[in-house]
Amino acid sequence: MSDAHPAIPSDETRLAAEIERLKVDFPKTRELYREVCALLFFRFGVPPTANRLYNLVRRGTMSTPASVLGEFWTELREKSRVRIEHPDLPADLSEAAGELIGTLWTRASTSAQAELTALRDEVEAQRAEAEQKVVAARAELGRTETALEQRTAALLAAQVEIRELERQQAEEAATRKALEAQIKRLGEAVVARERELEKVRDTFSRDLEKLRETANRAEERLRATEKRALLEIDRERSAAAKAQKELAEAAKRADKREAEHRRTVDGLQAQQGDARHQTGVLQGKLAALGAAHESLQEQLKALRGTMRAPARRVPTAESSPPVRRPARKAAVGKTARAKART
């Protein structure tokens, strides 16, 4: 891509740039407005106005550009007058001659201004035409650059493709050389293998002959072994039949023993049930005896308590009944025996 061409600055752009420069050179507001008036009128051919001046400078109040503009026009009119000072001329003639020369100068200035305006219009037209040509040239340059970029890209792609083809060709050449070397090695290996195969075939033929002889001898031994095996099988069959018969008899004896064992087990289970029943009865009796024993222990404690209380008193013949103790002991014995029976 080519560098961007600088655009031709317009009058407004150049005016703004000049005003920024004047702001730096003339910091005072009135001087700045006066210089801007001269710039507009003499440089750009634009009659200055108060609003135009204020919009361009943006300093002070609206009265400042109006006052400066009035002073500018007054000064311009004073400078446009031509004073003819000659001692022989009367004052009114000098003034009329000055007015005539001023009028001529004004007309000449107006004509020059018109020519300047026409020249500016012509320059502006030429500038516009030049800008159009620049735009067309830029467009043509853009199209040319685009075509150049496309051709450059195609050229680069072709170069890359050529390099890739060259690389592939080099790889294929290296691969072909490697394959040729491998084929040569494989051919040599095949020849060596064929020689080894011939040796192996000879060895195999000799070994096969030996194996055939060995197989014949083994077959003869196998036939003899088969005969002996058949004899052994006959003997084993006889022994198996005998063992089968003995096994049947043993099974019958086992069945008888199993029946007897079952009858014995049934009898033992009946005895075990009777024993469990008797054990339950005895446990009931034992519980009754335990309860009776506890009752007797309580009665004994009560009797001991009643016997200790009278022993603390003074013994008299009327208060000690010795005959009741054997009777109570006999009653306790009867109660215990009755509970044991139940």
UniProtKB/TrEMBL annotation:
- Superkingdom of the source? Bacteria
InterPro entries annotated for this entry? KfrA_DNA-bd_N
Task: Identify the stretch(es) annotated as Disordered.
Answer: 247-277, 304-342
The KfrA N-terminal DNA-binding domain covers 36-147
Ranges of compositional bias, category Basic and acidic residues: 247-265
Q: Pfam families in the record, alphabetically?
A: KfrA_N (PF11740)
Question: Can you name this protein?
Answer: ATPase
